[in-house]
Design brief:
Largest sheet: 8 strands, mixed
Strand order of the largest sheet: 1-2-4-3-5-6-7-8
Structural class: alpha/beta
Order of helices and strands: EEEHEHEHEHHHHEHEHH
Strand content: 15-25%
Radius of gyration: 17 Å
Helix content: 40-55%
Shape: globular
Number of helices: 10
Length: about 260
Amino acid sequence: MPHAQVNGASLHYRQYGRGPNVVFVHGAGGNHLAWWQQTAHFSRNYRVTVYDARGWGLSRGEIAVARATLGTDLLALLRHLHIDRAHILAQSMGGRAVAGLARLAPGRIASLVLCGTTAGATNDRIREMQARLREARDGTNLRDHALAPEFEQREPALALLYRQINALNPPRPRGLLGPLPPGYRGSMHELLSSLRVPILYIVGEHDTITPPEMIREAASLVAGAKVHVIAGAGHSCYYERPDEWNAVVERFLHEIQGKLLSE
């Protein structure tokens, strides 16, 4: 099993296929296995890289600093794998890695697909929404809100598999990925806009962690960003509705590659 010894961590990764580089960055409820419905699809035309963040899946490293190193770990992995530029596809927590990479090495980003994450593009309206949603969850684990209720009823086997994939992750300190300090008013929208690369936000219709209203507001702050809402899906829409998710992303990437070839 391949591991990259980088940035004081041992990062497990897998690569599939050939072609332009696409890198999938999982959320807090997943690991590299969560992308199984994407790796099979996209590896037909792209070189797909999936990996486990430190402290998730098979990766190891000082977990107490994981929040601060999500971006530096991603950059170190890209360097280790000699990936100079890639399409980055991030889910939920993966948006934090995107924010770090955008700060440290913006030139390595060919495009962004941001699923169930604002990637730090925020304003007071979004902060208010986030606060209301945290209060509504009343301290329940985010894992309990990762899938749409109707998905659990319609696809009990796949819902069980989702939980089993999550169960492979080692325990982490409580509050490791909690909200930023109350007085923090920073936003990534100006930096994301300055990348001047195509950006697509994807969100599930029934996402109760980053609902469509929040994602549309975040996208409105980022120059040129587009939004696609997947009907009937929750926070993990890439997992719940893979056919639509894959088709939308494939069209997005195909258009980009077409423009790159014509330049």
